[in-house]
Structures are given as C-alpha cells and as structure tokens.
Amino acid sequence: MKTILLQKDEYSISNDKSQLDIDAIHNFLSTKAYWSLNIPKEKVEVSIKNSLCFGLYKNSKQIGFARVITDFSTIAYLGDVYVLEEHRGKGLSKWLMETIMSFPELQGLRRWILLTGDAHELYRKYGWTDLADSTNWMELHNKNVYSH
C-alpha cells in the first residue's frame, strides 16, 4: 500500500498509521463522537489495526481522522470521520474527503457505505446519496455496546 503525505500550509494528511495519536483519537471517539461514546481504547486500537486510516494533522498534532474498512476490490465502509471543532470551517473535512475518495487503492469499488447523523451535505459533495431502496438493507445494531 502506498503511503501518502499531503501538505497544505501547516496542515497535513497521511495514511501512515505510525503517525496516528491513538490517545487523541480515542479521546475524541469515546467522549465527543455520538456514534462511539465510551468506546474502550482497545476497541479503537483494533479498529485502526484492521482499517485503512487517514490522519489529519496541524503541525504534527492530530486534529482529525477517518478510517475505511474495505476489501480493496468491491466495497468500502467509511467511518469515524472527524475534525476537531476548533479546526472546522477551514475546508479540512473537504480536503480529507477528497484525499480518501481519490486514494488509488479505493478506485473502482462497486459500493461505498457510511452512516452519518449530521454530515449529509459534506458527503453529497462527493457523490454520496441516500439509500435508493432501504428495504434491501438490514442491520444488527447494539447502540449501547460500550455502556457499562
């Protein structure tokens, strides 16, 4: 897999997992992300290990993240996308999405999927749409899995 490092002023994006700040990612996902509140750090570590990850940095400090679960052939799930609040409104989420959607090993997939409660307009800019027929989809969802 090709490692990328893109630079824009003091910001950068990389898919190099060794650069990820696991503590910072866990902190955001477990305390601020409505989809993964209270997620244990060990779960975050395993999810990162088994995904294609993109870190967003300001002067080497982790300020955003996204991960893709994929077979690199037919399907990809985009998840855990965030930019810290104090860095929003600067086009960074768009840059992150452009980077992910143009990543060479993710081209030609039959299907991309994601779940979002609040960023529909961001994803629509990159061709995402609502499900055409939700009757084909099923799920097994335990929204309280991280609650103790």
Automatic annotation (TrEMBL):
PANTHER family linked to this entry: FAMILY N-ACETYLTRANSFERASE, PUTATIVE (AFU_ORTHOLOGUE AFUA_6G03350)-RELATED
Domain (N-acetyltransferase): residue spans on this chain: 11-146
Listed name of the protein: GNAT family acetyltransferase
Organism: Tenacibaculum platacis
Stretches assigned to coiled coil: none
